[in-house]
Amino acid sequence: MLKKIATAAGVLLLSALAACGGQAPAGSGTGALTLGFAQVGAESGWRTANTKSIQEAAQAAGVVLKFSDAQQKQENQIKAIRSYIQQKVDVIAFSPVVETGWDTVLLEAKRAGIPVILTDRAVDSEDTSLYRTFLGSDFVEEGRKAGAWLVANSTGPVSVVELQGTTGAAPAIDRKKGFEEKIAARPDIKVVASQTGDFTRSGGKQVMEAMLKSTPDIDVVYAHNDDMGLGAIEAVKAAGKVPGRDIRVITVDGVRDGMQALANGEIDFIVECNPLLGKQLMDLAKKVKAGESVPQRVVTEETTFTREQAKAALPSRQY
Ligand code: AHR
Q1: pTM for the whole thing?
Q2: Which InterPro entries match (predicted)?
């Protein structure tokens, strides 16, 4: 009788493992870490590369990943986080679609004893005990790099249009701030129009089409990501102008399509934002679960690309 019960229990455990793609489920007693990850969406090439990096790194690290796509809506991310709390995952990680409005749900996670890791984007919360660490880029610095390049590579009056990322998102706020900080040294560089394109290619195209009609003599487009820059390039071409010659284009990210456009001469300069955060996230999640201390901030290493540098980097670019 005892032998039969033991066999049945073994069969149940094996089916549970199979249902989780071969990785041990939470609470199975095998020690596998369960990570609930609430992603922003799939708005850009950067985001697709980021999601892939997280999924592949979880697989490689033997982490059971529960993944949700919020389709760029804060309420969806909050719902996903609440569901991870209910499921009693070991660690929650998320990339907040906007900076504000997280305190309540983060407090719920804290009360449930589930540590939270911010990935890619920060929250604007005074209570830093609501999360254990923040892994991601320095977006203000990215904006500074874009502004510094324009200051060094332009003369005379320069009329800039800015395509902002999602309103209220950390990279949109910070990339604007860093850029403005640097161009302040050159009062003849003026941002004559600035609007959100929501980090999407279609958003960038639509906003640029309107700007080309309403704003005469645009010299430069500063797009907060490659996708919006690529959308703007389509609008510039449709208006009979040559991107990279009639209108210069500066973007942030460095995804393959952006790098290709830079190599082709349609983009002038790209500030890199690295989406390959998966491995670092898994390492941090394991440390947090083990009760080890982790730094409050982990900044991603990044570079910039000129045309020649893009040509050299393209053959080995992973995303
Ligand atoms: O938070 C990172 C930003 O979000 C990337 O620059 C952009 O492409 C993405 O949508």
Answers
A1: 0.90
A2: Peripla_BP_I, SBP_2_dom
